[in-house]
Amino acid sequence: MISLAGVVTQPDRPGSRGVVRESAVKASARALGVPVVQPASLGPPEDSTVLALRPEALVWAAYGNKIPKRLLDAVSGRTVNVHASLLPRWRGAAPVAHAILAGDLETGITLMEGTAALDAGPILAQSRTRIGDRETRGELEARLATIGGELLERELPRYLRAQLLRRPQDVRQVTLAPKLDPALGALDLGAPAEALVRLVRAYTPDPGAFTTYHAQRIGILRASIAGGPGAEHGALALRDGVPHVAAGAGWLRLDEVRPAGKRAMSGVEWVRGLRDLREDARLPS
Known about the structure:
Elements: E1 7-8, H1 24-31, E2 36-37, H2 48-51, E3 58-61, H3 69-74, E4 79-83, H4 95-101, E5 106-112, E6 123-130, H5 137-160, H6 193-202, E7 209-213, E8 216-226, E9 236-239, E10 242-246, E11 251-259, E12 265-266, H7 267-272
Parallel strand pairs: 1-2, 3-4
Antiparallel strand pairs: 4-5, 5-6, 7-8, 8-11, 9-10, 10-11, 11-12
Helix pairs in contact: 4-6
């Protein structure tokens, strides 16, 4: 029978408005009565708090720090990394976002044997799923978390009994998924509407896609592709009260936005509240 010796998670950090709250991982572990350690890093001497738990195997998902060789050796290499992509595609910190940005039709969960190198261990098991046409990164990550939990529950006992075949990753197929740059969330309306919709989905809920109107940031939470007459990119037009912006190819319909300092609202609500919308209005402005 598998039991949890302890849970290792990142230190508590301030969230919105500077309030420090427990992470969901920490709260769940405490509710189960499982010891929790929160080292700032996993190098010595901080890793001694993990070794003190006397683990026989290590399992991690989206931990955010490299696992040092000393810890891998302490469990004789019995390690499983739960990764939100179909490796070797999208190694790195933001695999779900990059799958959406690239227009991938599917993604999934990979269980791999953990190594000191980033996401480079042999593949133990995978589960595939299609990416919804309108699915945001946050929505897809939540769905993948469930898939990953089910896959781990099914395959971890088999791994610990040495019943899973290790399949080396094909290094020729490796693509990288670095952390998202918040500055790249600014909509380049010279790009095709299709690419802009993917960017909005990949950057939602954070760090956020945005543009500006009269120098005020407008977060774009949901957008979709629309047809329409040719126009200079950035031109803002209303169709049945819904704001549309001309892109490099096609039009971008602004379905849901968040003006600076305000709540999320539909695009219709946003333009309804504007008193200075002109026929020659543009984004960004």
